Structures are given as structure tokens and as C-alpha cells.
Amino acid sequence: MNGIWERPNLISVIILVIVLAIGGAYVAFTVSQRPETESFTVDDDYFFPFNFDRLDRVSRLANELDEVSGLCMGFNEDEVFAIQDEEGLLFLVDAITGTTLQTVKYGDNLDYEGVARKGNDIYVLEADGDLHYFTYQDSLTEITAQKIETLFSYRNDTEGICYDSLTNTLLITPKEQQLSPSEDNSTRRGIYTFDLETMEMLDQPSYFVDELELGQIVFGTNREYVFKPSGIAIDPITQDLFVLSSVGNVLVVIDRDSEIKHVELLETGTFRQPEGLTFSPNGDLYISSEESSAGNGIIATLTRLTQPSRDE
């Protein structure tokens, strides 16, 4: 009787079965990770002011922004600053048309993941936690950024950043390892503060999203929902934190006590890999996603809804 290695057809069948089994397991995990319900308002007193079933606008970006990885608001209405994760370029973009209005070179080709603005000061976040800082001038197309080192490293894989006007700090979210991981908070994904007065960062998170609490909301069972923050922004109307995770395509709203107020599961056809979000001063929301099925990065615009009166 011939050994199995002398029967190539049988080997091919075995390999095919293994591949199908792995694929089936992945599909099963994906299905189980994503329930049918896509919107969960946890706080009965909270009104979630956006309808993701009716996006106001989805604008395709230039080819240079296929790998768009961060957003922050510009100086004018419907203008945003965007970065991509390979080149040291800052893009000023018309969010309505997706047109690039200006490009500013600020640094070498590195792994950039997020961008924040305080006044004319721009802070670009690198995956290792370094901040690249410069003062924006619309008359310049090339500026040399200064580098500020933080407590993070590549082990943390930092992706989200925004400016918090309430505390004059930058909020930074690591996608992977926390700064001070422990068994007591192993399910918490921390949000850390970098103080712009002292230019120092706290080694403990100021806010967090708890994966176990998130799973209890989404699944209704004592089960974690995988959450790896890729973007963060502050609602200028409520001062709540909107935290985005491209893993799981989920948007979570938390208050300043880290209590979850709302969970929104994003449609994967539009938001293939969402990594950037920002608010306009009047509270409209912009979300960017990397290359979509249409072949370009996109920015989706959601106009803020007015809360219905209790009589309606």
C-alpha cells in the first residue's frame, strides 16, 4: 500500500479541506463578531445625532490618499486636513468634492497614523508614538517638522489623535499594547493625554473603552467585542469622545467618565477601513476610510440631526 506522500491527489484534497475549514472558521468568527443590529444607544438620555443609514455625502479622494489614515478639521467650512500612512505630506481637502486644495511636505517617509490641530499648530502622530509638530502657513508647501518623543513605542501602535480644548491636551489612542497593562484592566483600551503646557504625557489612561462592556452591549452576553482604536474625535456640542475602530468597523461614544453612551457598527461596503474622524465646529461629522471597492479613499459627511422634542 502506497504511503500518503506517494498519492499527490489525496494530498491536494486534504490541503483543500484544511483551507476550506480555515476559511469557514474565519467566516464563522466574522459573522459571530458582527450581529444583525447595528445601532445601540445605551444611555436613555442620550440622543445620537447621526443617521448612518443615510450618509449625506461620500466623496472619493485623490489617488495619493488611497491610504488615508487621519483627519482633523481645517480652517474653513467643509475643509479638512488629511494624512496618509506612508509619506510626510499634509493634505488640505475639500470634503464636499474630495479635491486636494493644498499639499504640504513636513517630513520623511514614515508610518504616520493620525493628525490633530490646535490653532495653526499641526501635530502628526507616528505609529511609534512620536509626534511631528509644525506651524501651518498657507503660503508654504514645505515645512520642517520638529519631533517630540512620547512614552509610546512601536509595541503600542498608536493610531488615533485629537486636540481636547477642555484640557489643552492631545488625546492619543494605542491600537495594540497599553502603556501599563495589567490583569485588572486587560479588557480596557486606553486613551492617553499629552499635556501641551508641560509637553509631558501621563502613563495611565485618562479614558478607556472596555471590550467586555462593549461586548455585553453588542452581543447581550458576557463576551468581549474586539476593539482596536484607530481614530478619535471630540463632539464640540456635548464634549463626548467618539472613538473609532477599523477592526470590527465600530464607532463608540463615551462620556468623560468613560461610560459608553452609544455604539454604531459601520457598514463595511462603504467603510472598508475607517481610520480618521473629525467634527466641524457646528457638530457635523466627517469619517475617512482607506481604499474602498470603488478604488479610492473616501470621506463620508454626516450632517448633525436635531433632537426631536418629547411631544413628537
Give the key terms.
YjiK/CarP; 5-stranded antiparallel sheet; 2 helices; globular; Neuraminidase; 6-blade_b-propeller_TolB-like; mainly beta; 312 residues
Description of the structure:
- By secondary structure, the protein is mainly beta.
- It has two domains: 33 residues; 269 residues, 6 Propeller (Neuraminidase).
- Helices cover 11% and strands 38% of the residues.
- The protein is built from two helices and 22 strands.
- The strands form five sheets. Strands 1-19-18-17-16 form a five-stranded antiparallel β-sheet, with helices on one face. Strands 11, 12, 13, 14 and 15 form a five-stranded antiparallel β-sheet that branches. A four-stranded antiparallel β-sheet has the order 2-22-21-20, with no helix packed on it.
- The chain is globular.
- The relative contact order is 0.16.
- About 3% of the residues have low confidence.
